[in-house]
Amino acid sequence: MTIDKKLNGTSLVIALEGRLDTMTSPQLEEELKTSLEGITDLTFDFEKLEYISSAGLRVLLYAQKVMNKQGSMKVIHASEPVLDVFDVTGFVDILTIE
Amino acid sequence: MMTLTVKAHISNLSMVQDALGEWLDSIGCPMKTSLQLQMAVEELFVNVASYAYGEEEGDLTLSYEYEEELSLVRITFRDQGMPFNPAECLEQEEESTRLHVEDRGVGGLGILMVYKTADQVHYSYRDGWNILILEKKL
């Protein structure tokens, strides 16, 4: 998985490419732990994310909880397989998906 | 049919996933279904690797079968760890999907994802073996 971050003031866009799974989720979690301070507007661009498992969902849940305290978060360009996972796990009700 | 026996350790997940992906390609499985099956196998593999043998080492055997006349993929997990019937976690995981974000824990959704993805999930415990069978039509 590759993580591409674009910071603009207090807005951060994180684009992921590849697989967000048991092996790669810790990498994203580490990145978030050092990147979210002062951020008020977080966007995950999942256009090139082909796969997500429950380990990836846990990291998104962590990010959502942080952003609920300090701003807002949304997910854009999620593919059908990723949207299916959000759907069956009830994450469609937790995340803002555009 | 393809059979793979590995140590039930998280470090073997990539190998298991790669082997599954290649096998699914070889039977002409569509990409969407392939990703769903890889996700289900990841969730179950991680469960066995995390809990089945506690601190001990143990094996996990995976079998992949394709019944062409039915367009049916059957994936079987066998391990000799603690008895674990995933159906017993299902209700709890379903309940957690109805919780508010702040009340959701880091706990599992993996089993729920497996049940929602597969057409059939069958579990049995026989002679010290956990046997879990997933079936999905292509």
The CATH superfamily of chain A turns out to be STAS domain
- The shape of chain A is globular
**Overall number of strands of chain B:** 5
> Low-confidence spans of chain B: pLDDT under 50, at least 5 residues?
none
- Annotation field: number of helices of chain B: 4
Largest sheet of chain A: 4 strands, mixed
Order of helices and strands of chain B: EHHEEHHEE
User: What is the CA-CA span between the terminal residues of chain B?
Assistant: 16 Å
Would you state the CATH class of chain B?
A: Alpha Beta
Provide the residue-averaged pLDDT of chain A. 96
User: What is the residue-averaged pLDDT of chain B?
Assistant: 91
Question: Which spans of chain A have pLDDT < 50 for at least 5 consecutive residues?
Answer: none
Description:
The complex is a heterodimer of chains A (98) and B (138). Chain A has 98 residues and is α/β, with parallel strands linked by helices. Chain A has a single domain, classed as 2-Layer Sandwich (Transcription Regulator spoIIAA), CATH 3.30.750.24. In chain A, 38% of the residues lie in helices and 35% in strands. Chain A contains 3 helices and 4 strands, in the order E-E-H-E-H-E-H. Chain A has a 4-stranded mixed beta sheet with strand order 1-2-3-4. In chain A, helix 1 packs parallel to helix 2. Chain B has 138 residues and is α+β, with helices and mostly antiparallel strands. Chain B has one domain: Histidine kinase-like ATPase, C-terminal domain (Heat Shock Protein 90, 2-Layer Sandwich), CATH 3.30.565.10. Chain B has helices at residues 13-26, 31-52, 87-96, 110-117, and strands spanning 2-7, 59-67, 72-79, 120-126, 129-137.
